[in-house]
Amino acid sequence: MLTAVLLFLPLAAALLLHFTKGATARALALGASLVEFALAAFVAVDFARHGSSAYNLDYAWVQSAGINFHLGLDGLSLLLVLLTTFLVPLILLAAFRGNYENPSAFYALVLFMQTGLLGVFMSLDAFLFYFFWEVALIPIYFLAGAWGGERRIAVTLKFFLYTVVGSLFMLAGFVYLYLQTGPAAGSLAAHSSELSAFYKLKLSAGEQSWLFWLIFAAFAVKMPIFPFHTWQPDTYTEAPAPATMLLSGIMLKMGIYGTLRWLLPIVPLGFSQWQKPVIILAVIGVIYGAIIAIRQRDMKRLIAYSSLSHVGLMAAGVFSLTQIGLQGAVVQMLAHGVNVVGMFFVADAIERRTGTRQLPDLGGLTRRTPLLSVCFLVMLLSTVALPLTGGFVGEFLLLAGIYQYSAWVGAVAGLTIIFSAVYLLRLFQRTMLGPDSSFSATITDLTGSELLVFVPLIVLVFWLGLFPGTFLHLSEPAVSSILTAVGR
Amino acid sequence: MTSIILLSVFGIVQLFLGFLRSNKVLLPGVLLVLLAVFGANLADWNQAPQSFFNHMLTVDHYTVAFTGIVVLTALLLLPFSRSYVVAHEPNLAEYYALLLFSLVGAIMMIGYDHLLMLFVGIEILSISMYVLAGASKRDSRSNEAALKYFLMGAFATGILLFGIALLYGATGTFALSQIAAAVAAPANASLLPMLYIGILLMIIGIGFKVSAAPFHFWTPDVYEGTPTFFTAFMSTVVKTAGFAAFLKLLAVALPAAQGFWAPTIQAMCALTLLLGNVGAAAQTTTKRMLAYSSVSHAGYLLIGLVAGNGSLTGPAANGIFFYSLAYSIATVAAFGVLKLVADHRQRDDYAGLNGLGKTNPLLAFVMTVAMLSLAGIPLTGGFFGKFFLLTAAVGQGHIGLVVFAVVMSMVGIYYYLRPIIAMYLRPAEGPTAEAVPVDGLQAFTLGLLALLTIVLGILPGFLSGIL
To answer: N or C end of chain A: smaller count of CB under 10 Å?
Structure first.
């Protein structure tokens, strides 16, 4: 029951938002997202005490085809549910600053998207998973398209086509798997699309080899992994800040999560067959993103490429298929979600004040904006993976995992720490330090509501950095069971 | 059967209502008739199959289900004929009467058990449509459409009739079940070429009616010239009835000849998907895009025929049913919005939809839902339609065809996004910046169409697997 409330509360709020305007709409949107977070926190505490069985929800959805509306939670999905519910109120708060036209529609789409994301993280039925996977795409397309920058039409079309094409391949893979299954216990249908039924399939290595790419196509585009990334920098740059935060903070994690739950355990043989090429692609992405980030002049684009570099590292960690790499990916999903949302919010705060996000136009902001500088620095250092921050724990574990797989690959991937220090410190230097520019003369410091966004982010950065055990403990059984399913 | 009687009687009554000076009673009257027909049709659900006219027509689950789709489609489409009422169109009573008669033809095509009944049904439907294509008699494009449709249609009917005659010559009967027996155990092997030519000619004839490539060439021109209201009727009712008839013919009468017709249908299917989707992607007006899109949907439905495997109850038949329903609802919604916008803004290209998201949020939303459904994106009925059909086809081992269909639906996503981009992402300018007037009944119907599409996309379980 609670699971259903958790899933549908944002959707209900989104529908209600249609009838509200102005301050009421804000209060409703923020209120709903906060209640949702409280609910998720309650579930998390309860989960840590009693385990997951209470959160299983299973109804026949399309009875004649054996498709079920099956939701459930384990440590892994719970962490992503927590991340989503934690970030959405902050993203809404950030959206309140933006003066977007037709604001209640904007908030409604954000909440609609939240339902889609939560559905992706909780689904235990392949077609339900695909359903929510696409449901999450529709609102973000409109958010990025209707409120985006000048080149939004071409850019969002590319984004939409890339992701839909990727997910159609995944759907094709799922249909194939579905037709291999037998009937579920007590069901009249000939097949079952339950995740557990997919886990039980005995597929030959040859089948798994191509199935791997069918399913991975969707995840590779979503993450995105080199060379499927070409939609990403443009979309991140053209989308309005809250949409970029949703894309980079949460949506990207759908790809990593999908790999962990819907790829590794289903086609383990295909996975080990393609492990090496994919890790190499991921590490190429790490280096490629970082090198391009160094050359960027646009703040948002720079952060977009930095995100590309970091997600490459997460993918490489997952594909190292070691306990430590997988755990690192889990922590880094949380840390990266927090960091990247913070970074994009900084960029947005500066752009709203100065009207530009070009590095050559900026400089010397720090004298007039001490609070912004501090928040910026914390987010930046966590992204660089300085010890004590969440980014450090995540990247350390990831690199350790990749090193276990291959020392050489680990060494190359490790360059990310140096590169990210280069481009991020350059970013800080060009914006906050140095001589004043004409744009920075009138800048004001953070307001109360902006601070309200940063404080929870900073708290979480240090929490992840100092006590990662809280989260690692939750995800450990789930990660172990994935590794067992793969046979490692 | 009650529905056929009701429709025929009220069709004639409708003709006499034309003597009234006022058009005002016509629309409510015809809506009530269709509601009654819809109810009468549903009352036959879950009854034992009944046979009429010396076993020429059967009313069973199959008939009731597909009749439900065509009547519902007509019902949901009618409110968009309001502009004719407002404009005091002098021939409105005749239009409505022809629509009712054409529904009689559609129901006969769905319920036939005898090739003569099929032929009579197709003719009743087609002749009504030839006339209605030319409804705007002072518009030369409408005249062109009617003439083109009539000449091509008459030619195709001739081919169909020739096919029926050859089939009769080879099997000695018009009844579907007896044809099946005769095809399964041919009495005289020297008649086999006649049988195969007959089957081929029938496939060509019906393929023309449902606009399957390579017999689709008339579709874009006729759809474009025909007044939008009747185009919507053509692309939904005619197609649904045509596919119901097609499936019945192949599955009931000709399962034994599957080795002959399956490759033919597969080739038609691939060609239809290719020409429909690539053609639609190249269009610049919404109406022509929808015309090509209706060709492409014929392609998806042909996959159902390929996977039908001689059964009116299996996953493929159910897939065709669900797909036709989802497609009809989304198409009515798309044409409904297009008609309202095009009537007001006097243009039917993509740019005519610019800024609709701001001026008419309801119209834009309904159009968006319709486009997503036609593109097969989840949350809409169109997704489950494609899903059921393609899964059924993969289950029968037609993997290559399904992969091709999936690739083609990727092309589809591109052109279905174009109206959405125009409505939400491009600003309205000049005369297009004012709101399009929508009356209460139309707004209600549009809301209902969007709701039905979403309900089919969220709770497909109600209607999947009912056959």
So the answer is: N
Give dist(CA B3, CA A418) in Å, integer: 77
Render A126-166 in DSSP notation, one character per residue: HHHHHHHHHHTHHHHHHHHHHS--TTHHHHHHHHHHHHHHH
Model confidence band, residue B312 (pLDDT cutoffs 50, 70, 90): confident
Q: Does A305 touch chain B (CB under 8 A)?
A: no
Distance CA B34, CA B10 (A): 10
What ipTM was estimated for this complex?
0.89
Å from B395 to nearest chain A CA?
7
Note the Cα B185 to chain centre separation in Å: 35
Q: Residue B74 corresponds to which amino acid?
A: A
**Separation CA A403–CA A413 (nearest Å):** 9
Counting one residue from chain A and one from chain B, the pairs whose CB atoms sit within 8 A come to: 76
CA B70 → CA A55, B235, B244, distances in Å? Answer: 43, 11, 11
DSSP code, position A222: H
Q: Assess A405–B contact: CB distance below 8 Å, yes or no.
A: no
Strand partners, A341: none
Question: Which amino acid makes up residue B70?
Answer: V
Bond from prior residue into B220 cis (ω within 30 degrees of 0): no
Counting DSSP H helices and E strands in chain A, the numbers are 20, 2
- Check pLDDT > 90 for residue A99: no
Q: Kindly state the tokens that stand for A311.
A: 């997600």
Cα–Cα distance measured from residue A151 to residue B148, given in angstroms and rounded to the nearest whole number: 43
Assess A172–B contact: CB distance below 8 Å, yes or no.
yes
pTM of the entire predicted model:
0.92
Amino acid at A305: Y
CA atoms within 13 A on the CB side of B421: 19
Strand partners, B334: none
For chain B, the domains span: 1-463
Cα separation, B210 vs B206, whole angstroms: 6
Question: Residue A187: is its pLDDT beyond 80?
Answer: no
Residue B425 to residue A61, Cβ atoms within 8 A: no
Contact B426 A153 (CB under 8 A): yes
Q: Which residues of A touch B450 (CB under 8 A)?
A: none
* C-alpha–C-alpha distance, residues A382 and A468, integer Å: 14
What distance in Å separates residue A378's CA from the closest CA in chain B?
37
CB A273 within 8 A of CB A205: yes
Amino acid at A84: T
B59 sits in which H/E element = strand B57-59
> Shortest CA distance to B267 belongs to which of B160, B376, B404, B157?
B404
A153 touches chain B (CB under 8 A): yes
Listed residue (A160, A170, A157) closest to A120, CA to CA: A170
Determine the Cα–Cα distance for residues A414 and A426; give it in Å rounded to an integer.
19
Structure letter (DSSP) for residue B60: S
pLDDT in tens, A255-288: 999 999 999 889 989 988 899 999 999 999 999 9
Question: Quick check: A241 and A347 in contact, CB under 8 A?
Answer: yes
Q: Which amino acid is at A21?
A: K
- CA pair distance B327, B91, nearest whole angstrom: 30
Residues B161/B119, Cβ–Cβ less than 8 Å: yes
Question: Per-residue pLDDT for B462 more than 90?
Answer: no
* Better pLDDT: B180 or B86: B180
pLDDT by residue (tens digit) across B391-433?
A: 889 888 888 899 899 999 999 999 999 999 999 888 877 766 7
Residue A4 has which token pair? 């259903």
Give the end-to-end CA distance of chain A in Å, rounded to a whole number.
35
